[in-house]
Please model this.
Amino acid sequence: MLTATVLNPIFCAVDTPDLDAAKHLARDVRGLVGGLKLGLEFFTAHGPAGVRAVKDEGQPIFLDLKLHDIPNTVAGATRSAAMLGVDMLTVHGTGGPAMLMAAVAAAREVAQPPKIIAVTVLTSLDEKDLDLMGIGRPVSEQVARIAVMAQEAGCDGVVCSPNEVSLLRAEVGPDFLLVVPGVRAAGADAGDQKRVATAGAAVKAGADVLVIGRGITAAPDRRAAAQSFFQEVAAARRARAH
Model:
């Protein structure tokens, strides 16, 4: 599982309710990305059948549902998702340690369990948002607290913004997966995300998986865009190795 990320850490975000468009995108980027991320918009429209249909295109699947409920409910949802044969599944770290442990235990009931990835702080949030939510600490500190809790609960990794990668790598060590959205080409619009960086910067900081959506999906030539991101990743890996 996830062996593709050894060669290519890029997961292309398939954020569309159109199944045919999703399958077409999967074919467009085949061989140029390490896998596909299916999120809430797609899953709400097509459910498990849609996941299976995209999985049939032959690439690893990151099911980004951000499950957040009482432990028993999340365990049941995790179990169902694991039976789809996906490679990664997200749960919300703010659900707490009991919920995270329930998700991990449920995932391990299948022969090939997905990696359970806890979301720390959404990349659309900043300090002002946390303050409005009653969380009186910097984003980086909140991210680190949730990451350590997730690791102790048995999760395989966390989702964080590019800004927190270096901090987390020091906190959780080399084997805990850091999945990073908010990746943009240099000079590109940040859109609805507030904590962003380039693919190269994220990789140099220690990111394991990069989630890239609009930078590929909205490009005039998706294959060329995916290839460009991968070349940037490869250059950053070479630089990090030296």
